Amino acid sequence: MRLGIGKKKAYKRAKWCLAVAAAAMIGMAGCKDKEANENQQAFRELGINKMDEGNYEEAVDAFQNALDQSQAVVGDMEIDICYYKATAQYNSGDVDGAVTTCTAVIDYDKKDAKAYFLRGTIYLKEGEGKKGLEDYNQAFQYCKDDLGMYISAYENLMGAGYENEAQGILEDATKIKGDKPEECRERGYAYFLQGYYENARRELDQAINQGDDKALLYLAQVYEAQGEDKRAQPLYESYIEKNSTDVVALTQLGEIQLKAEKYEQALSFFQKALEADGEGHQQRLRRNEVIAYEKMSDFATAREKMEAYIEDYPEDEEALREYGFLQTR
Question: Between 20 and 30 A from 306 (CA), which of 11, 84, 186, 250?
Fold first, then answer.
């Protein structure tokens, strides 16, 4: 699916919003009038809300309207909006438009690591691994200490089938120094992904001692990976107290409850996660929901849920076999 804007027109718009300040206008940064600034903020917020709703084409329009308020000013706000716009373009199916927007940011600032990273991610998802790796290398060159970027790159490369390159990025990540809580947390997570659990616990404990909530989630995952569910569960619960809509934590806590045969609690966590999840985890959560109902001997509800699940995920052969079993109950 493509937006109604042709590639050439989209490129002109992107170039305008980013490059118009390259000459005499460059000194005008921060000179937008109050009304334009307020309008820009409102359109940006609208775009983010539309993205959260999954209405990506409307999000693109909102972000473009936000850029149209720039009054020939290019600053951090305009660049930030372009990141959002590129993401919305890609999710709407306008791959060329997303690449064009990222490229325009890079043309404006050759050292913009986030633009390289975003464009590299698009290339990877589109099967252009060589271009994706090149952009990731550029991103790391200009942002050598962003551990979060390294972790995201690892996950994206693994998803694209570049396991060796992904492992190399993790090794680079663990070499990055820093004692800030977020640095300890991300370095600890990198150790966890490599299976170095002792190192992971040491780093994550240091982050938790500095008040980093997300490190609780990662440490719970470390204990769970080691089969220590009793140590993982309270960490998940502590994390969820402050992050009640975190789908990953709710899912994993629900699965711990399933293994512990606490089926009602498991179902509660899965349903909370389903309420919070817009996309990305629905299949796993809905499958777990069916299992919980089965374990509770509520076969009528399990059968009803499974019928809806199979309609949406007909490729799940195991679920099809299980549905046959449920029809006999």
Answer: 250
Angle between helices 181-194 and 163-174 (to 10 degrees): 140
Q: Which CATH number do you get for residue 274? A: 1.25.40.10
How does pLDDT run across 18-73, given as a tens digit for each residue?
Answer: 433 332 233 344 456 888 889 999 999 999 999 988 899 999 999 999 999 987 77
Quick check: 56 and 50 in contact, CB under 8 A? yes
Please write the tens of the pLDDT for every residue from 208-264. Answer: 999 999 999 999 999 999 999 999 999 999 999 988 889 989 998 999 999 989 999
**Type and span of the H or E element at 63:** helix 56-67
From 142, 153, 149, 145, select the one nearest 177 (Cα to Cα): 145
Opening angle at CA 264, ends 259 and 270, nearest 5: 75
pLDDT at position 36, please? 86
Domain that holds residue 95: 1-109
| Cα gap 203→277, rounded to integer Å | 29
Structural domain count of the chain: 2
- Rounded to whole angstroms, the Cα distance separating 177 from 252 reads 30
Handedness of CA 21, 27, 28, 29 (dihedral sign): positive
pLDDT at 323 over 80: no
- Which of 51, 79, 109 is a domain's end point? 109
Q: Rounded to an integer, what distance in angstroms lies between the CA atom of residue 189 and that of residue 219? A: 8
Four-CA torsion 159, 161, 164, 166, nearest 10 degrees: -20
Q: What is the CATH number of the domain that holds 47?
A: 1.25.40
pLDDT of 2: 30
Would you say residue 68 lies in a domain?
yes
Query: Residue 104 belongs to what H/E stretch?
Result: helix 95-108
